[in-house]
Amino acid sequence: MSSQNTDWTFPQDVGSAPTPNLIDGDWTQSTSGDTFSAFDPGTGRVIAEVTKADAHDTDTAVAAARRAFDEGRWTRLPAAERGAILWRAADIMDSKADELGVWESRNMGIPVPQARTMVHEAANQFRYYAGWADKVHGHTIDLGPAERRVQGYTLREPVGVVAMIVPWNAPLISASKKLAPALAAGCACVLKPADETPLTALWLGEILLEAGVPAGVVNVITGPGDTVGAALAEHPDVDQVAFTGSTEVGRSIIHAATGNLKKLQLELGGKSPVIVLPDADLERTIPAVAGAVFWNSGQVCAAGTRLFVHEAVHDQVVEGVAAEGRRLRLGYGADSDVDLGPLISQKQLDRVTSYVDGGRASGADVVTGGHRVGTDGYFFEPTVLTGVDQSMNVMREEIFGPVLGVMPFSDIDQAVALANDSSYGLASSVWTENGATAHGIARRLRAGRVGLNVHRAGGAYMPAGGYRQSGWGRENGEEGLSAYLEVKSVVSTLD
Asked: I want to staple 83 with a disulfide (CB 3.0 to 4.6 A). Which of 104, 133, 246, 377 is the partner?
């Protein structure tokens, strides 16, 4: 390594000094000395220079994780102690929620109060999985006839070294949803945050060291996806890749992982449907539907971006959601009374703009929004489109912005067919006062999560993941822990 500093701590103001990577318990710069810039999307200005890891640095980080795992630095600790360390990490995160919230806001743009809430949600991942650390149990099975009994039992063991590649839209939560269950399972980890939002991931590495996670068990490296991410996906000493991001990148990880047939956990894209029936409580439904698509400026993989409304209430719902969008206050994340921050980058702003412009060109009507706001930062108006159909890109492809397409339907069968007419299947929601109808529709929707009179809920407790091109496997809940475990069968005679 070109330099090491075991005493580095995350400063209140990063300044111009390059922010180092965490490898084997040491804070290091890259062997090349190269850096890249982290930006504030609310202003478009640089807020930090970050170490730019390369393939050699990736090898070093993976080797550190492999040594830590093979030496049992983490697994040799009593399971209850490992759980206590994870709980301590949650407490530290909560105690630093103000600082972490400010940095999460500065680096991704979300308003500070919402960022603080996300910090607490991330901390709860560690608190939840702390309780699982000493509950990783197998089963015993008696086999064969009484005169020649064979005993069988199963062991649930950590998969080994896990590479974690996380997105920019919820950096702390995404990292915590992978690190917490993997550590509860006993794995060693290499975390690569998104290029756009590397800062709080590094702070999380510091918190885990402070909580008592041994050196090398958690390593954090920052660098481009096409070098660091690709190197992790194909690395022969990586046993599993856990990835959250686009379906396109997910496919490339699948191909890269074939070298050693490593396990994969993939949470990919979404184009989530929202169904509003004529008996829905519109006073409650309309603001909730608006929140499902506009929260975090639509930069949520499970955002409800396709709205199917019964024709009897279509116009009322469209105007209501549009009015909610117009009421939302856009602004810099640290300003008071701000509801929505910017998109993450100029690239994302251009992407969202092109989808809306393409929708207009295809015949869609813009009920509200559809334009950039201001010239500083990357702000885009909450947008509602009508006159759309299932053939349009705005209704088929993930936009990752505050853009909602609305279509009417006349009966439930049509609504379900429209909702399921997608290559994705991540999330969905149904809005009705009839419980039997709601649960009946839930069984018919091809999605990993269905909300009934709610779009997003469950947190660490409920499994989340997708059908079809929305991914493989599940995060959260017991399923999230199982994703990082292997099952071993042992059989023996009793004589």
From this structure: 133
pLDDT tens per residue, range 434-474? 999 999 999 999 999 999 999 988 889 999 999 999 999 99
Residue of 189, 196, 301, 475 marked catalytic: 301
Active site residue 189: no
Tokens 């100029």 map to which residue?
A: 346
In the chain, the domains with their CATH numbers are 4-268+473-489 (3.40.605.10), 272-459 (3.40.309.10)
Count CB atoms within 10 A of the CB of residue 198: 25
CA distance 363 to 386: 9
For residue 445, how far is the Cα from the chain centroid? 22
Half-sphere exposure of 353 (CA within 13 A, CB side): 13
301 an active-site residue? yes
Q: Is residue 220 within 8 Å of 249, Cβ to Cβ?
A: no
At 326-376, the pLDDT tens digits run 999 999 999 989 999 999 999 999 999 999 999 999 999 999 999 999 999
Let me know the angle formed at the C-alpha of 244 by 96 and 294, rounded to the nearest 5 degrees: 75
Identify the helix (H) or strand (E) that includes residue 164: strand 161-165
Task: Convert the pLDDT of each residue in 389-446 to its tens digit.
Answer: 999 999 999 999 999 999 999 999 999 999 999 999 999 999 999 999 999 999 999 9
What 8-state DSSP symbol labels residue 243? Answer: E
**222: its two tokens:** 């920052």
Phi, psi of 158 (to 5 degrees): -65, 145
Q: Show the DSSP H helices in 307-455 as ranges.
A: 314-327, 346-361, 393-396, 412-420, 435-444
CA proximity to 59, closest of 214, 186, 236 = 236
Q: Tell me which DSSP letter residue 225 carries.
A: I
Which residues does 361 contact at the CB level (< 8 Å), separation at least 6? none
Q: Which of 104, 187, 189, 267 is catalytic?
A: 267
CB 116 within 8 A of CB 97: yes
